[in-house]
Specification:
Elements lengths: L1 H22 L2 H15 L18 H16 L6 E4 L5 E5 L10 E6 L14 E3 L7 E2 L5 E2 L17 E3 L8 H19 L8 E6 L22 E7 L4 E6 L1 E10 L16 H10 L16 E8 L13 E9 L2 H21 L4 E11 L10 H11 L5 E5 L4 H8 L9 E3 L11 E3 H19 L3
Parallel strand pairs: 3-8, 3-9, 9-16, 10-15
Antiparallel strand pairs: 1-2, 2-8, 4-7, 5-6, 7-17, 11-13, 11-14, 12-13
Length: about 450
């Protein structure tokens, strides 16, 4: 009975929204709502299997990739190329329709959703003409504009809000970005009067498990794009122009078990104490709990036994995993020096423990290093004209763009992360506003126009 009730609620709300849209902007509102709902109903959670080299793909991820691929193919468009890769990335290449040379633009979003919240049986609910108050969901949770992090709801009275039923996530991260970009693509394909340079779109997989760059194929587009924009932000009034460089270190401490009464003569290798000593050399002032803004940090986030071939703990040994995060290259050099000195001191203090750095992996790179200088002002103007003004920020995290910049530093410029319409991501409280998605489409179109008109 509950399932039927939820479906009825969705049907009634859809009818009311459609009636409301007829009064305003029927085609745009209806298409955006229908498109977004068709995406979020597909359960495309990625899998975090902790294997850095694997690239698992769920049936839902395949389904949404095929849906979007077929959707764009059906739009037609002379000389438009649509590619579905073997790894279920979707690539769209729209040639320029202006005679002069203008910078090319690559827009990005991702089709998978996080495994960090329930994602089976997603039932979206449409809340039309939102009254500005609490949204009480059947799944037993309430979205309130008075809750921390959800204050933006106060700005959206009278708009169309979409949530899940409260028992699962919605998938707004980043199916809002997908809906925005496919709506933009449709406008470029079907409106020959819209003047634009070369516009490319890449929709990736496994972004929410940190692997969006793993199977990106730059050869699909051929040339290095001049401008890249990632439509995957969660701050409605900010877009990122810098982010952490993220480096992960792994250290192996190989011990030698001897009774402590005969420790010296038996060359006792106490890997547990050596690992603790090693971590203790990291200055507490650079621990994450003491850092904010554009300050980086060093964080030991795991000390555990490695496993043998039978998946049993190797009791004499330990593996230590450390995160280095920094905005500034000089700070990065300092952090690396701290880790090298800590390693040297530990090897000297515990000569019977063999300590080796087994892994040094750059997860994502700071987009600021290669971001085109003119782009922030272009985005600020584009958002202002679309009525959804955003300003620059530094992001204490990574994005699809920063992952790809780390993997292909010579083939991808730094890309700002722009608001996609997602709110309360990675949770059952996730929601979006359809009216804002329409505004973000306009932002993308304004960016294209601004770049075409640059002198």
């Amino acid at each position: 009975m509950k399932k039927v009730l939820i479906c009825l609620m969705l049907s009634v709300n859809m009818f009311v929204c459609n009636m409301q849209a007829q009064v305003t902007n029927k085609v745009s509102h209806d298409k955006m709502l229908d498109r977004f709902l068709s995406y979020v109903k597909i359960e495309s959670q990625s899998i975090d299997d902790s294997d850095l080299n694997s690239f698992p793909m769920t049936e839902g991820q395949k389904e949404i990739a095929r849906l979007i691929y077929n959707e764009v193919k059906a739009m037609g468009g002379k000389d438009v190329t649509v590619t579905l890769s073997d790894d279920y990335y979707v690539y769209i290449d729209i040639p320029s329709n202006v005679k002069k040379n203008v910078p090319s633009i690559l827009f990005m979003a991702h089709m998978d959703v996080t495994p960090e919240a329930p994602g089976d049986g997603i039932k979206p609910i449409v809340h039309c003409n939102y009254d500005g108050g609490d949204l009480v969901l059947p799944g037993g949770i309430t979205l309130s504009p008075n809750d921390p992090g959800r204050e933006h709801l106060k700005d959206l009275k009278g708009k169309t809000i979409v949530t899940s039923d409260g028992s699962t996530l919605l998938g707004a991260d980043d199916k809002t970005g997908c809906a925005v970009l496919i709506s933009m693509v449709e406008e470029l394909i079907t409106n020959p009067k819209f003047k634009h340079g070369r516009v490319m779109v890449m929709l990736s997989q496994n972004e929410d498990v940190g692997k969006a760059a793993m199977r990106y194929e730059p050869s699909v587009f051929g040339d290095k794009p001049d401008v890249v924009i990632d439509i995957d932000g969660g701050d409605y009034d900010r877009f990122s122009v810098s982010n952490f460089t993220a480096i992960n270190h792994t250290y192996y401490f190989k011990g030698n078990d001897v009774h402590p009464g005969r420790a010296k003569e038996g060359k006792y290798g106490d890997a547990r104490t050596a690992a603790a000593y090693f971590v203790g050399q990291i200055p507490p002032e650079i621990h994450p709990s003491n850092r904010d803004g554009e300050q980086g940090y060093v964080h030991c986030y795991s000390i555990e036994h490695p496993l043998d071939k039978d998946s049993n703990d190797i009791k004499t040994d330990y593996v230590v995993k450390v995160r280095l995060r920094y905005f500034d290259k000089e700070e990065g050099a300092y952090q690396k020096r701290i880790m090298a000195e800590s390693l040297e001191k530990t090897q000297k203090a515990f000569p019977y423990v063999t300590v080796t750095k087994t892994h040094d992996f750059t997860q994502y790179e700071n987009i600021a290093y290669t971001l085109p200088g003119f782009l922030p002002s272009v985005i600020e103007k584009a958002t202002s004209e679309a009525g959804i003004a955003m300003h620059t920020q530094s992001k204490r995290g990574g994005t699809t763009a920063s992952l790809i910049v780390a993997r292909f530093p010579d083939l991808m410029p730094g890309a700002p992360g722009v608001y996609s319409g997602q709110q309360s991501a990675h949770s059952r409280y996730e929601w979006t506003c359809i009216d804002e998605l329409l505004s973000i489409v306009k932002v993308c179109e304004n960016v294209i126009t601004e770049i075409v008109n640059m002198k």
